[in-house]
């Protein structure tokens, strides 16, 4: 069980919550802060003070005062009117992350929400009740209003949830459990929806999947090295220490580990003096992507523990400030940066695929790895598919954060588009995973032609692991099935199943 404090949630804990369905509990000191903040809101309501978000309208309506008798209706109208997300829902794992992150932010005690609401959010996490949240419709400031409104609807018994493998109405799941939906009090609707948790939740899932993919790209590239009689001198530690990037040094070290004991790789001058860049520069290219992952990790872990709603309540309610912590610019930049790192893992993978299948480049392997060149096309069109995915990623890599369209009658005149960036990064990770799945398919076949018994022991293990569900290419077949099997297997892996923490020095 992981304790949420609002202060120190990290990506490893999120991995456990999202991938191992770890449960959570709430820190008692944090709940004390929450209670004090709530008392301040109740005092403001009693005394009739005018404070944005408590007894005023929202956005351009911030100058409209709301009577105390209408405070409950104000919160319900807010989340209903703002629940205008559209498109396909976020995947369930992202929805779970969104609940956890919103809960963690509210535990900081700056939002004026009741402990009862936080306990209900924790119940949802621990009983796998995940809101169905449309993925489109957020500008990323004032936070992720539309997605988080769909989350908030579930608390009041509206909207839909995933539960036990089905999508069902929220009122039905509460009824089945004998629990009454909540009635939101003053400020609670705003506290629930004014934040960056949609982009950050998608960003967290993106990072965890991208980290695993970056590790997977190394053994796949190593197997390609074997299939092409690659030169290992380029991975000599002195080369990478001379440049000084720790991530580059780590990739080179891990590549040599994968290739240790291989009889298929070569040394300088044995077959040729040097390899093409897609082989020789693996530590430099992949290492640069690891540098991006390090930057993105830092920003995500700050945002995961940030107070991002408005207004914020300080000094037991004596100081209430309308600010702009809901603006998603830091995560928008981080997601756009992550897109570049993922794009390059796929770009260089596609170039290695081309070398594996091209008879002018593949060091004597059959043309297109075909078992009967001419009669059978082999992996010819797999390279086409990889090229298509890489090209699609190039269009998705356009930064979402450079765009801004004013909203709320120009009151909110600059927005981040961070959620669009996070969604596109997720799409690019899926595309990149399939490109690397194609490289894995071709590398498995190429190394088989060279002689499985000559592979390094570690790569023989990988060969056996994947051959258990992807047979050798002894004749043409519908290869899309094979690629999807590999892709699904890769998606279900975690970084820790590839390397121990001691082995995987990068981005710790």
Automatic annotation (TrEMBL):
Q: Where in the cell is it found?
A: Cytoplasm
Q: Which UniProt keywords apply?
A: Cytoplasm, Histidine metabolism, Lyase
Q: What is this protein called?
A: Histidine ammonia-lyase
Q: What is its EC number?
A: 4.3.1.3
5-imidazolinone (Ala-Gly) crosslink site(s):
141-143
Report the PTM annotation.
Answer: Contains an active site 4-methylidene-imidazol-5-one (MIO), which is formed autocatalytically by cyclization and dehydration of residues Ala-Ser-Gly.
Looking at the record's lineage, which domain of life comes first? Bacteria
* Pathway connected to this protein: Amino-acid degradation; L-histidine degradation into L-glutamate; N-formimidoyl-L-glutamate from L-histidine: step 1/3
UniProt-recorded Gene Ontology molecular function terms: histidine ammonia-lyase activity
Catalytic reaction equation(s): L-histidine = trans-urocanate + NH4(+)
Q: Does the keyword Lyase apply?
A: yes
Q: Which residues carry this modification: 2,3-didehydroalanine (Ser)?
A: 142
Naturally occurring in which organism (per UniProt): Paenisporosarcina quisquiliarum
Family statement drawn from the similarity comment of this UniProt entry: Belongs to the PAL/histidase family.
- Record lineage: Bacteria, Bacillati, Bacillota, Bacilli, Bacillales
What is the predominant subcellular site recorded for this chain?
cytoplasm
Which cellular components does GO assign to this protein? cytoplasm
**Which biological processes are named by the entry's GO terms?**
L-histidine catabolic process
